[in-house]
Amino acid sequence: MRQKGKIKAWDDNKGCGFIQPLIDGKDIFFHISGFPSRRRRPEVGQLVTYSLGQDARGRVRAEQIAFSADQIRTSVQAGNKGSHFSIWLVSLFLVFMLLSVMFSHLPVEIVFLYLGLSIATYVLYWMDKQQAKNGGRRTPESTLHLCALLGGWPGAVFAQQTLRHKSKKESFRNTFWVTCIVNCAAFAWLITEQGQQLLQFLGDFL
């Protein structure tokens, strides 16, 4: 008999957590292997259905876990809105960067720098997702945030949307958007007189 519950705790690095039954009862342990379909990563607060089973030691755990239909519909609607905003923001930034290079005397190398960092960041996201699927060593979130901060955030946005990786975890996304804002602010500063002087100094030094 299938039961309904809500994910109460989840450790993405260990791949396990606890489900709180909607009807009174003790929290149920679950492992990522309990999801027959692993196209989405679990998150705290998500509604799921599951069956009760036992591990090799006879301990109760959740098996055949699936996201509830209501949860899936809500996630898809929220994901579509977030996806449209993210892609719109990246497009706007790219247009702004190209205009800045054309009219503000920014070196064209800036464009290639962002492109290279974005490609490298996309690859890191892809590798981290493969490791998550296979239970391997994960890329630290601090590394992903550092790449975004340095200028790879457009690639991170495309990775989140196309790979569906790190696109739902609220704490990660909050920090991610802070790195995007800081990077955009730093880029805008480069257009100012002080920023132009710094770029000139670096150009002469190099």
TrEMBL record:
It comes from the Bacteria. Residues 2-67 form the CSD domain. Keywords: Membrane, Phosphoprotein, Transmembrane, Transmembrane helix. GO terms for biological process: regulation of mRNA stability. Gene3D superfamilies: Nucleic acid-binding proteins. The chain crosses the membrane at residues 85-104, 110-127, 174-192. InterPro entries: Ca-reg_mRNA-binding_domain, CSD, CSP_DNA-bd, DUF1294, NA-bd_OB-fold. It holds the Pfam family CSD. GO terms for cellular component: cytosol. GO terms for molecular function: mRNA 3'-UTR binding. This is Integral membrane protein. It comes from Nitrincola lacisaponensis.
